[in-house]
Amino acid sequence: MPLTATQAPAPRVTYRAVLGTPHVARLLFGTLTGRMPQGMAPVALVLWATATGYGLAFGGLLSALYGISFALSQPLKGRLMDLYGQRTVHLPAAALNSASLLLLPLIGPIATTKQIMATVVMAGLTAPALEAGLRALWPSVLPDPRRRHVALALDTGSQGLLYITGPLLVATLTTLHSPALALMVTAALGMAGTIIVTTSPPSRHWQRTQPDPTVESPARLLGAGFALLCLSLAGVGFAIGTLNVLGVAMAERHQAEMLSGALPAAFAAGTFLGGLAYGARTWPGTHTGQLIAGTAAFTASWLPLLLLPGPSAATAAVMLPGVFLTVIVTSSYLTCDALTPPGRTSEAYTWLLLAIGAGQAAGATAAGHYANTPLTGAALPTAGAALALTTLALARARLAFAQHPTAFPPPPIGDPPCPNHQQSRS
């Protein structure tokens, strides 16, 4: 059908237009700053433990405890945000997280290992769920679905910067001064970013959702479609989780120490570039279709590792899976919107994060077990991605109604205040 005067094509949404929307740049910058501890704390804990005489093994344990406790606490923090608002949850959590990280250098010389472990667990449990909080705000800050798509892609892709700049900053601070300073800066950045987010009008005016028996039922959230979506993301996380261990194993095999850091950095760079490319245009198909296609490409892009390439080729190869990760994560959140009842969005997003985190832990464990078997270790990322793809293929019928992402459209907002998009959807 030819276009009439009233059917002119919609103008292309640019990054400049999205970042120029009120609150968007501030929320992105604040969230990235507040999430820097995710890229810094695991490395800083290892360096601090080794520098204070506890050893590398104990440092690795502390790093794992931080990541696991952070992931496990996500759904509770998401539920609390849905009920009581973001500021009420984010600010106390960030304060406790920062205090716990600052406490470590003080108690290190006198504390027992159990006390140190408990402090690290407290730091992980109280790290604010800024990522889920930001994505819960996008529908009210950006009512236009096209602009929201661009913001989600930019948000997801920029996560790669956390795992490039975070470890680099920790290494620099440790070299110039000490790992204790790295922990202090980690705590300061987490608190500063949280304050930037929670003092913005969209986060400040987040309102408590009124209880509704039809909305509050756990069965509505934890349905089969949502559970399968989480399982697929666990497979994606499994593939990602193998990368750090495979990097170390390949570095030892090729006697190229830089390879252990180069592989994760290359993957993160691919994620960033993929986010820029994915958000730069509108792609055909539904969100669920894009999720399955992205997962298929993600699975195929791990196959070159089965050829056991050399250091340079391996570094180049792992960039490609990173490119498709942005497609998967962005499409998962948009699909999740259609699967989630009103009033449960923050909680739903945190379950997705928990699924990825659990998969990463399992992937790292499996890669460590098969580190001395190069071909098996190289096959693990493909196996995790294949699990994700198979799960999505089986779940496609259950995700059918997620083909209509505007089933619960959010209304436009004033500035300020920003009404709670969850209430508007109900």
Automatic annotation (TrEMBL):
Amino acid composition bias (Pro residues), ranges on this chain: 407-419
- Keyword hit for Transmembrane: yes
- Note whether Signal occurs among the keywords: no
List all membrane-crossing ranges. Answer: 45-68, 89-110, 116-138, 150-174, 180-200, 221-246, 258-279, 291-308, 314-336, 348-371, 377-395
| Region entry Disordered, spans | 406-426
- Database matches in SUPFAM superfamilies: MFS general substrate transporter
Designated name of the protein: MFS transporter
